[in-house]
Amino acid sequence: MANPSDYKHEYFNVTFPAEYVAHVEINRPEKMNAFKEVMWINLQKIFQTLSHDPSVRAILLTGAGDRAFTAGLDVQAASQGSMSQTSSDPARTANALRRHILDFQACITALEDCEKPVIAILHGISFGLALDMSLACDIRLSTTTTKFSVKEVDIGLAADIGTLSRLPHAVGNLSWVKDITLTARIFGSDEALTHGLVSGVYADKAAAVEKGLEIAKTIASKSPVAVVGTKEIVNYSRDRTVADGLRYTAVWNAAMVQTQDAKDAMLSGLQKRKPTFSKL
């Protein structure tokens, strides 16, 4: 069992609702789970720890309360944080901003880099950073009342934490990507499902969380060697040619098919029993 004391970080609740399953809850409901600077850092710490925790094989990500997964960036807090610091020299200001943007990008990329699959449950208001985070996840589910928006053009900037880079890969429709990113319009789950932004829509948050937990438990029952390898290869292949993906798969599996997990899985199939696998 994972050690809860390893996951005590401000503005987040981390629980373990099933064997090998972690549930990360963004916990700032009074501000609609809007992010201020410490939350970015804590999110990164949590997912880096989960990535290497042998007692975790799948992760659920939600927001506290029913109003919002996250309303995005806490603009008021950001205006007083490190991003607001400037120099009299434009080049030095630009270099400091570049460093901060890269640091913030890395906090969100921690979800994508996490070895374990992450399932995002998008509910209520899911604006701005909600898209950045969920697009770095592996599976996205939503509810009939979820409201999405890539909000950044409304605050005078191009989204810079991941949406503009990951969204075209996730949905494969550049016209729609430009529609929602250039207008910042609010859209619902039916449209998100039509374009492949989410893979399922459920009646409410409770139903979506229940389905997400069901998926997480199914993933957690599989060989952790196979699951880690599958996520790694899919993400690698997404950004490269088919030939590159095939070569990488061959190199990866040259080592990984030697696992005891493969033997146990095949034997359990022959014996018609559910296999169990060692921690990774």
TrEMBL record:
Task: Give yes or no: UniProt keyword Isomerase.
Answer: yes
Q: Which GO terms describe its molecular function?
A: delta(3,5)-delta(2,4)-dienoyl-CoA isomerase activity
One of the record's GO cellular component terms:
peroxisome
Keywords carried by this UniProt record: Acetylation, Fatty acid metabolism, Isomerase, Lipid metabolism, Peroxisome, Virulence
Pathway named in the protein's UniProt entry:
Lipid metabolism; fatty acid beta-oxidation; Mycotoxin biosynthesis
Location of this chain's protein in the cell:
Peroxisome
Gene Ontology terms describing biological process: fatty acid beta-oxidation
The cross-references to InterPro entries, in alphabetical order and at most eight, read: ClpP/crotonase-like_dom_sf, Ech1-like, Enoyl-CoA_hydra/iso, Enoyl-CoA_hydra_C
Q: Family, per the entry?
A: Belongs to the enoyl-CoA hydratase/isomerase family.
The record's section on PANTHER family has: DELTA(3,5)-DELTA(2,4)-DIENOYL-COA ISOMERASE, MITOCHONDRIAL, ENOYL-COA HYDRATASE
Q: What is this protein called?
A: ClpP/crotonase-like domain-containing protein
**Organism source for this protein?**
Lophiotrema nucula
